[in-house]
């Protein structure tokens, strides 16, 4: 639970925080989940007596150019010095130059491909040494180093698959195939046919939105025809697939894997308390996703740091953020002052029949290494296996 301290009478009446998510379009389910997480953070703040912050929403409708328009509107017209948002890395990279120009702070809370550290961005989402590397440490010994890589045709897919190639080569393995699809492309038949022919040991899925859902549904059908492609024999593993998307996969994807920093079913005191408060707010809410939890965390941390510093000045807020640990549903959050990245736990989940995930492996908070400077030099860590 977040503890807020309140501003004195010398502060401005209200500080506005921009929320920049596409709640429509190919990844609209993720944007809606993120926006709902932001709204819950504001609700919790108000429930604790807070009155000094409000949220200003802008929906870019998954149009890359509109993200820039949205960031400009939030900062110039609404007076927001802080923006929580963007889902895709393409959108994040689009708005960062404008945030820099206005001396603002962007709070980014999605898993991403790393190789970035910007003084105008606080990274609450995991980077590759917090998701991809521990994922491969789990997969390679169990299934072998002969994966097939699929990805969205933009920076997330390109960089994640590039890192996967490096990890596999270093493990003495072979990449059996590598294919890309646009964000809204759902014609996956040729890729699935190629996978069926090449028979990889596992599949790394870096698709997003409808492409990912169509691909997972097609792989499930392939598994029904050929048991070699059932999840227990050739799993599909993702680093961005969440609870809020599972209903969009035709026929389901039971047994497939996702590596994230949060799952709904975590049995931690922070999560039990978080879900109890959420149930009181929205009794109809289903399972909580990492997108919801991370967006909540970003907004709550932004407000708490503003109040603790007594100012919404981004430099002062950033200094406050990196000066201490912050209790959160993701655990005690520590943000590295050099990279602005949060240390985050690693959880590996297996999709179950209830449109959720069963936890099968975990690791406590991993310090972020966005440029993989130290991660390439360290021996493999040992994950705590929860289920086989």
TrEMBL record:
Which segments cross the bilayer?
A: none
Lineage in the entry?
Bacteria, Pseudomonadati, Pseudomonadota, Alphaproteobacteria, Hyphomicrobiales
Species this protein is from: Rhizobium freirei PRF 81
Q: Which SUPFAM superfamilies does this entry report, sorted A to Z?
A: Periplasmic binding protein-like I (SSF53822)
**What name does this protein carry?**
Aliphatic amidase expression-regulating protein
């Amino acid at each position: 639970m977040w503890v807020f301290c309140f501003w004195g009478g010398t502060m401005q009446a209200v500080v506005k925080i921009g929320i920049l998510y596409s709640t429509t379009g190919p990844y609209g389910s993720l944007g809606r989940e993120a926006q709902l997480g932001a709204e819950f953070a504001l609700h919790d703040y108000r429930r604790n007596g807070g009155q000094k912050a409000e949220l200003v929403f802008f929906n870019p409708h998954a149009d890359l150019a509109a993200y820039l328009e949205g960031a400009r509107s939030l900062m110039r017209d609404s007076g927001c010095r802080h923006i929580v948002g963007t889902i895709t890395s393409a959108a994040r990279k689009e708005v960062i130059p404008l945030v820099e120009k206005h001396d603002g702070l962007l709070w980014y809370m999605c898993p991403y491909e790393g190789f970035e550290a910007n003084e105008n961005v606080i990274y609450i989402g995991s980077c590759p040494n917090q998701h991809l590397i521990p994922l491969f440490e789990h997969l390679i010994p169990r299934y072998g180093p002969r994966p097939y890589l699929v990805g969205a045709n933009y920076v997330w897919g390109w960089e994640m698959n590039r890192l996967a190639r490096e990890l596999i080569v270093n493990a003495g393995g072979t990449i059996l195939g590598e294919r890309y699809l646009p964000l809204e492309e759902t014609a996956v038949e040729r890729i699935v046919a190629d996978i069926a022919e090449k028979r990889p040991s596992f599949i790394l899925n870096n698709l997003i939105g409808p492409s990912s859902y169509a691909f997972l549904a097609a792989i499930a059908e392939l598994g029904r025809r050929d048991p070699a492609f059932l999840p227990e024999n050739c799993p599909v593993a993702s680093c961005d697939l969440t609870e809020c998307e599972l209903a969009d996969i035709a026929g389901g994807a039971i047994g497939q894997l996702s590596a994230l920093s949060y799952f709904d079913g975590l049995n931690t005191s922070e999560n039990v308390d978080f879900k109890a408060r959420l149930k009181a707010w929205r009794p109809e809410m289903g399972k909580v996703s990492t997108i919801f939890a991370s967006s909540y965390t970003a907004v709550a941390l932004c407000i708490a740091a503003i109040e603790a510093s007594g100012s919404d000045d981004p430099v002062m807020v950033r200094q406050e953020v990196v000066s201490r640990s912050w209790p959160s549903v993701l655990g005690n959050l520590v943000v590295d002052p050099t990279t602005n990245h949060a240390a985050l736990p690693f959880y590996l989940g297996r999709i179950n029949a209830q449109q959720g995930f069963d936890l099968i492996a975990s690791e406590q908070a991993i310090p972020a290494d966005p440029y993989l400077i130290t991660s390439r030099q360290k021996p493999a860590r040992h994950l705590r296996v929860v289920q086989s």
